[in-house]
Specification:
The complex is a heterodimer of chains A (235) and B (194). Chain A is α+β, with helices and mostly antiparallel strands and 235 residues long. Helix content of chain A is 18%, strand content 56%. Chain A has 2 domains: 45 residues; 180 residues, Porin. An 8-stranded antiparallel barrel of chain A has the order 1-2-3-4-5-6-7-10. The radius of gyration of chain A is 23 Å and the shape is elongated. The termini of chain A are far apart. The chains are: A alpha+beta (235), B mainly beta (194).
């Protein structure tokens, strides 16, 4: 009972400290809101998109949510990620995505997996039209990635891997306005590097294994949903 | 007599509605902050957040919007979260009729979550480490706003937040929530005057 009261007391103290931190954060938030407001009103001013020539040079900024299905090992669950990207169009039918994704997934109830992807893809459109309501495409590209596996019970027990990967898939832009689109993408990514995975042994201990040589071509299926806004026509 | 008065009132009301100004449109910037209660979908627990948003209307139909939530407290003596903040950015689609706006939105985002190691009534002096986890999340929102003047409006939103807290002992934990927010919001017309 005494332990419970003490723990509750310390928890209360911590909570008050956290509340003061929240108030400090609000001040930061005010500053950020004002800065963002000024930036938005000057840079983002909604205007019709006037092209300088063809569609080459269009630059878009976007955010996206990623669902990652790791299917290499039995205990690895579906992952959720978020990321951002910019899109630079080279020609009427040729575009490129330059992305960063941060993804988390769980390995049973004994470990977690974090993936960082930074890379690019080339998009090929089946139409020359600039903003049809629906614009399908195929894509292929390359990325560098960092993977970290950590034991849930013991955070100092982990394994990590740097590797690169190739990806290919297909997607659709839903053009909501001249400048704004919703994009859905499905792609398969194959990692070219050492394969890593976690196991829980019968005694409950967690072990990480790394297979050198990259022979397994570990891969996962990724689905992205994202929004992009065309901010400029560079050439 | 009553019928006559009702007809007269209807005509006057319709005339008034037609003549009124529209206070939200392309290039409107709006922001607000309020206290927002939530219901955790996988636990019998309610949280209270301090939330704020900033929204820029590209047109009558679409807007960019960023939302931030800071966890303040919960209805439990020993809350599930020790610290939590969630930030989202995405696009909203609007259906506007005069000054009444209805909308839905999708926002990818990040949640910074720290589980309270003493939640579930577990009190111990054992040094349990509370680790901050960076959790990818997304938010789906449906809501409505009524613009009563050129500088403010009343709003009400219901937001579903999807997140899973992994990387902690005993986990992973689903931390999905419904968050309700309502209040007064401020807006300015940022159109360039000619």
């Amino acid at each position: 009972m005494r332990n419970a009261a003490s723990a509750a007391f310390f928890y209360g103290l911590h909570h008050k400290t956290y509340f003061s931190l929240v108030l400090k954060k609000i001040n930061h938030m005010k500053f950020l809101l004002i800065t963002l407001s000024v930036a938005l009103t000057s840079a983002l001013h909604a205007q019709p998109l006037n092209l300088k020539g063809d569609q080459g040079g269009l630059l878009s900024l976007g955010v996206r949510t990623t669902v990652s299905t790791f299917n290499g090992h039995a205990d690895e669950g579906t992952g959720m990620g978020m990321g951002g990207q910019f899109r630079l169009q080279f020609a009427n039918r040729l575009n490129s995505d330059w992305f960063f994704d941060y993804m988390r997934s769980n390995i049973g109830d004994y470990a977690s997996r974090t993936d960082y992807h930074i890379g690019w893809s080339v998009l090929y459109y089946f139409t020359d039209q600039q903003t049809p309501r629906i614009k399908p495409y195929i894509l292929a590209g390359h990325c560098f990635d960092y993977t970290r596996l950590v034991s849930n019970a013991e955070p100092n027990l982990f394994d990590e891997r740097w590797s690169s990967a190739v990806q290919a898939g297909a997607g659709i832009h839903f053009n909501l306005t001249d400048r704004l689109d919703l994009s859905l993408v499905g792609q398969y990514m194959i990692h070219i590097g050492n394969e890593v995975h976690a196991d829980q042994h019968a005694d409950g201990s967690v072990h990480f294994h790394e297979e050198k040589g990259g022979a397994s071509l570990e891969g996962h299926l990724l689905f992205n949903i994202g929004f992009h806004y065309k901010i400029a026509d560079l050439w | 007599m009553v019928r006559y008065l009702m007809m007269l009132f209807s005509v006057l009301f319709a005339h008034q509605m037609n003549a009124q100004d529209i206070y939200k449109g392309r290039n409107t910037l709006e922001a607000s902050a309020t206290i927002a209660p939530s219901w955790m979908l996988n636990r019998n627990e309610s949280n209270y957040y301090l939330m704020g948003y900033l929204e820029y209307h590209l047109s009558e139909r679409f807007s960019f919007r960023g939302d931030t939530y800071f966890f303040v407290d919960s209805d439990q003596d020993s809350p599930f979260f020790r610290n939590a903040s969630r930030t989202f950015f995405g696009v909203y689609a609007h259906s506007q009729k005069n000054n009444w706006d209805r909308y839905i939105g999708f926002q990818p985002g990040i949640s910074l979550l720290t589980k309270n190691p003493y939640s579930d009534g577990i009190y111990t002096f054992a040094p349990i480490e509370a680790r901050l986890q960076v959790v990818p999340s997304f938010a789906l929102t449906a809501g409505t706003s009524f613009y009563v003047w050129k500088y403010f409006n009343f709003f009400a939103n219901l937001t579903y937040i999807n997140s899973t807290l992994g990387g902690v002992a005993g986990g992973p934990y689903r931390t999905d929530e419904f968050v309700f927010s309502a209040g007064l919001s401020f807006q300015v017309d940022c159109s360039k005057k000619k």
